[in-house]
Amino acid sequence: MTTVLLPFICVMLCGAILSALFAFNSKLSSAIGVISSAANSLCILAIAVAALFFRDDADVFKTIFLIPIALIGFSGALHSIHYIGTKPKHGVPGFYYAAFNLTLCAMMSCLLLDGMRDKELEKLFFLLLWEIMGLASFVLVYFDFRSRGVDRASWIYLLSCEAGGLLLMYSFTHKGVSALVCGLLGFGLKAGFPILHVWLPKAHPVAPAPVSALMSGAMVNLGIYGLLTFYDLKTAPVGWTLAILGLAGTLTGIMFSLTKRNIKAILAYSTVENCGIITLGIGCGILGGVYRHAGLETFGYLGAFMHLINHASLKGALFLCAGSVYHSTGSLDADKLGGLIRKMPSTGKMFTLSALALSGLPPFNAFLSELVIYVALFAGLTGTNSLPVAIFCSAGIIVLGATGAFALASLVRTAASVFFAEPRDQEIFDAATPEKPLMGRAIFITLIPSLIVMICADSVARIIFNTIDFLFICDEDIQTAAISQIVSILKPVCMINCLLVGLFMLFYGVSTILKRRHRVLRGPTWDCGYVKPTARMQYTSSALVQSITDFFSPIFGIAGRRRGAALASEPGSDIADRMFWNLIFRITARWSEKIHRFQTGYLHFYILVMVVAIIAMLLWAFLPEVLK
Hints:
This protein is mainly alpha-helical.
């Protein structure tokens, strides 16, 4: 498949170069960038999907990771036409499309390296492409460089990329436990593992929406791909590590989204949660293989990769919806927005449905993938003789249940306050522009895999099972029986979903015809006896979850506010920032101040330092040989 996809990637790379060369001709560079990224992503998407069905390649595992990249690359390019435009307030469109195409090229190329004869050369090329991906995506995050907070967020993102690259360099050039630990840290930074997720809530709120969709829906998956490709993870310590990281990320990610008002910050923490669910599934799969439990292994891996596809589709659509809201209103503050369903009906409906789906509610697609992980945990709980595995499965069931409740509270309150509530800031609402049809179509395209999984989950499960069968350790016959069992569970659910989708389409068609034939009367909602209800009489996005944030205030770092008092500003901070990263930043700043004293401004002093450094390096290199 590599030879088939290579020409499309080369054409996309040429599009990146041409977009940069014609950067100051906005219309031409934008046209080149959009056409090259959209057309080639669509072709690569078609080839990847065909590879899944026809299995024309011995290694189709990479297509699971390639499909989200191509899908969001295509829809993100279409969405960028209006989101970026030809005359943005900040940044140059040509440089945006050049970096967007280059990021896509690097991400896809990382997947196509697997299979080279020289493994050391393969690792070298992977590191180069990984670095290009980080630098190109940094340019995209920094695109709106004059806006408040972009500098700090983009530098944190760049530092996380470079730190991950350095860890991977050490890991690829060494062996043993230290190499594995550095690999977990390096790829974990990209995958958004707990504590290592520092860049996600910082970069996403300031990055352009198509970039956030690409990074959250596709780029974080590459961290999982790297771990599964370059390391032997089928050991108990690694399985327990990933399982515990999955539990921690699943619960803490969605809990911290409750303290945020910025729509994209809420979605960023939701990414931490969903990456935790994927990691939890993979941890279940590894532990199932180690302890020879076929149900835990099969259902764990299967649920993880089903959720990977579901999350990519839903989160990509949600970020594009957030971009449409920002393009229309110029704001992402959920406490100030409201009533946008009147001006953005298609966007509002797709955001609401995607939020419900990502919360794990039936009958949506994310519910089905989480259901498979639930089955894995229940299988592990009832069929294992290991007490630690039983305790872990019990904790996993509780955490997944609590996570679903928090996700529903976080995402649905965002949809309700932004689209269905009365506008809190009338000026923002009055200045809001109607949604662009092309942006809505881009969002809908991103949701197509979600619809497919929703009505054909049993078939998708079989395809994924055949794609990831090399991960399994347990007996093949037992694995086949396990997949038959999960298909028998999913098939009736899919039949019901097909019926529901058909009824929904029938209802929508009939209502559309009736609206055309009859005049629809519009008025204020039921006012509970109030003569003239106003936006001040309704809950804000933050107030809807204030009881939860008050209860967990020690975890969220909320202090100095009377319990039950109104929220004056966005409260809380990430526990990883408070207890880990802020300490590192303070130590780094302290040492930087000391090093800063060496900047005397005298050229002679700088030359002296260089000479001393060269002499020290020479002594370090040759002194051991002399002493021998």
